[in-house]
Amino acid sequence: MSESTAVAAKGATRRNGAKGSNGAGGGRSARSLIKLLLVAALLVVLLALPLYVPEFWLRTGFAVFGAIVGAIGLNLLVGTTGQLSLAHAFFLAVGAVSYVFVSGEPGGLGVADLDGLSFPPIVGMIVGVLLAGLAGLIFSPIAARLRGIYLGVASLALVFIGIHVLNAWTSVTGGFNGRTAPEFSLFGFTFGNRDPELYVIGVPFREAERLWYLGLVLALAAYLFARNILRSRPGRALQTLRDSEVAAAVMGVNVQGYKARIFLVSSMYAGLSGVMYALSIGSIAPESFGLELSILYLAMIVLGGLGSVNGAVLGAIFVSALPLVFQRYADIIPFVGGQGGGGLAAGEAARFLFGAAIILVILFEPAGLAGIANRITGRGRARARPGGGASTPPPSTDTSTTSTSPSPSDRPAQGSTT
Amino acid sequence: MTQFLSLLLNGVSLGALYALIALGFVIIFKASEVVSFTHGSLLLLGAYTIARASDSIGFFPAVLVGLAVTALAAVLVERLIINRLRGAAVISLAIVTIGVDIIILTEMIRRIGSDILNVPHPWGGGSFRLGDVGISQNRLVAIAVAAVLIGLFFAAFKYSNWGIAMRASAEDGETAALMGIKQGQVSALAWVVAGILAAVAALFLVGSPTPGVTPAAYAVGLRAFPAAILGGLDSTGGALVGGLLIGIAEALAAGYQDQLLFLGRGFSAVVPFIVMIAVLMFRPSGLFGTKELTRV
After folding, report:
1. Distance of CA B88 to CAs A103, A362, A414, B19, Å?
2. Is B292 a domain residue?
3. Is B158 exposed, middle or buried (0-12, 13-18, 19+ CB in 10 A)?
């Protein structure tokens, strides 16, 4: 675990270092120190959580980590590059199925004859990511040629074709009923309930605790990778491409090439997220990878803030945890009833909320949760919001005199800025 | 041969219904530059309203109510949301309609549940035979009604003030506005028309050979997307051609599914999407869509 902390801390220092060198400012270094401390504190809390928190929250946490990986990937494509894709569920499915197939045992389960390659789970995970990337690469010639909205609808096709394949290719996917996902293990250490039995300060570390750490590492890696992409030349190229393809091409950005490559990266993220999804649920079934899933991911990045990595994380936490929390606390939350009784079912209530939230965010706060967070921390001031249909009151809480230069990954969404 | 002919006829009727929905997509896109993802749930809303209302007030008044409710829902979406986002990016607009879609769809699924609501079509569920070629009476009426509506639509689009205003503002919004064309009005009317077309399509799509109103009608609305896209999103003629093409392809795939069994059961439902991808590979703006030109 210490390794991941070190990586994160390094990322954080580099981040702050870059900001410090951007311009002179007295409050800057103090602020970056505070930020560093906050990041460190957050990491310590995340690392220590399994010692104190019950299993439900840890399981929810792993699902959320998986969603974070997927949402970051989709946001690179939709938010940063401006390519609407509804195919995310398809790439998740590719990742999940590859993992289950490559690492799964062959054998008959009920009616279906299942094939499996019985490779170690880590191989399955890598193959899952690579195959999802390959699927993205195969689709990318189409994706790179289509403009915005045509791509959105064309990608819709992948979801339906994917569901059909999942249902039909029984020997690999388990068909309509799906199949169970093999437990993850790494060099003989299983992420299951035993083997080896593990106690940390008297707390038994079982499946939920172990998966929590796996999820944390993977989500952190995905986060840092995305931030680094955005801070380097490709990131800037992608943003230019979103704002104007012509301008990007004139400046020497290979438009088709970048579009194809970001599609590849995004689908690899989805593949990893799919593997994590399979691990989190413990099984896969075709109906989990429908259009609804794509729309949920879209909801995550819209609510979080298009184009912002932090936003994707916030959105993923909100969208993926909410239904689970509703389910658990159905008795306490108003308007949400349990089965049979009055009120909405948990899933329905969550969907109503997402739908309404998407509309409100696009109407009033196109930068999403990340935008709201920035405003609270006073970073949003430098961000001009020219024209557009949505009118928002200017941030008034900002009293600091330093004007931070907007970091590239946190640009306001395309929303109303065109 | 007779099997082929009857599949073709069924395909044409299905295609005519797809064309109605696709026309809705196209005029909404032309008038307000929005790709409306609400259409699937509007379709469901129309079908549901007709089915529920016909219990108490009879079939034909129920149809009117259904059309009115769907059109009202569509125009509300336009007035309350789309109109306020004029000039926003196409992607944001599409996403906002997805938000609306989630809400309507969730409510519809909640109300319908696992029921199958029956719509009492006065033309019954029987089938019509001409020699060996057969088609359900419902689908035959559908062809007739769709033909009339599509004819009316194209006439209105070409000759009426609304049609001219709409074509003008699709061509060049700013100039049209300077000529005194109210963009908001044009766009609102486009949504009304699209809502009505979707509700009419819904009316026939839930009749025989389909069992009745189920949430599956939503998926049918989505299958009309390929129709609009492969014809070209900004081409009304393209929507017609695309709808027929998709309808026929789907009907043929369903009819010959025994021969296509190696592709899996229920393959016909994904045929529209495969046709769309195949077309887009060679013509990225659809068959009749305007190619986007970029000037530097």
Report:
1. 46, 10, 8, 28
2. no
3. exposed
**Does B296 fall in a domain?**
no
- Could you give the 3-state DSSP secondary structure of residue B140? helix
pLDDT digits (tens, 9 = 90+) for A170-201: 777 777 777 777 777 776 666 666 666 666 66
Nearest CA distance, B269 vs chain A (angstrom): 8
Give the Cα separation of B121 and A24 in Å (integer). Answer: 76
Closest CA to A72 of A294, A300, A414: A300
State how many domains chain B has. Answer: 1
Tokens of A169: 């290719």
CATH number where B173 lies: 1.10.3470
Q: Does B130 touch chain A (CB under 8 A)?
A: no
Is-contact A375 A397, C-beta < 8 A?
Answer: yes
ipTM for the predicted complex comes to 0.84
Which two tokens mark A106? Answer: 């062959």
**Residues of A numbered 329-358 whose beta carbons fall under 8 angstroms of chain B's beta carbons: which are they?**
344-345, 348, 351-352, 354-358
Answer yes or no: are the C-beta atoms of B236 and B167 closer than 8 Å.
no
C-beta neighbour count of A400 within 10 angstroms: 14
Q: How far is A78 from A270, CA to CA, in rounded Å?
A: 13
DSSP-assigned beta bridge partners for residue B157: none
- Would the pLDDT of A397 be above 70? no
Nearest CA distance, A380 vs chain B (angstrom): 21
Closest by Cα among B137, B30, B32, B20 to B67: B20
Residue of A164, A245, A291, A335 best to disrupt the B interface, most CBs of B under 10 A: A164
Token pair for A376 = 């609270």
Q: Do A362 and B273 touch (CB under 8 A)?
A: no
Q: Inform me whether the C-beta atom of residue A145 falls under 8 Å from chain B C-beta atoms.
A: yes
Q: Does A363 sit within 8 Å of B85, measured CB to CB?
A: yes
**By C-alpha distance, which of B293, B238, B262 is closest to B276?**
B238
Whole-number Å distance between alpha carbons of A224 and A238: 17
**Domain residue ranges of chain A, discontinuous segments joined by +:** 51-290
Instruction: Give the number of other Cβ atoms within 10 Å of residue A398's Cβ.
Output: 16
pLDDT 10s digits, B220-235 = 888 888 888 888 888 8
Closest CA to B250 of B218, B222, B272, B229: B272
Q: Is B77 inside a domain boundary?
A: yes
Q: Do B266 and A164 touch (CB under 8 A)?
A: yes
B290 domain-assigned: no
Q: At which residue do the structure tokens 């970029």 appear?
A: B294
pLDDT of residue B294: 62
pLDDT band, residue B100 (cuts 50/70/90): very high
pLDDT one-digit tens code per residue, B47-67? 999 888 888 888 888 899 999
Residue range(s) defining the domain that contains residue B247: 2-282
B248-260 residue pLDDT tens = 998 888 888 777 7
Q: Does the pLDDT at position A67 exceed 50? A: yes
Most confident segment among A138-142, A172-176, A353-357, B290-294: A353-357
Residue A220 CA to residue B76 CA, distance in Å, equals: 43
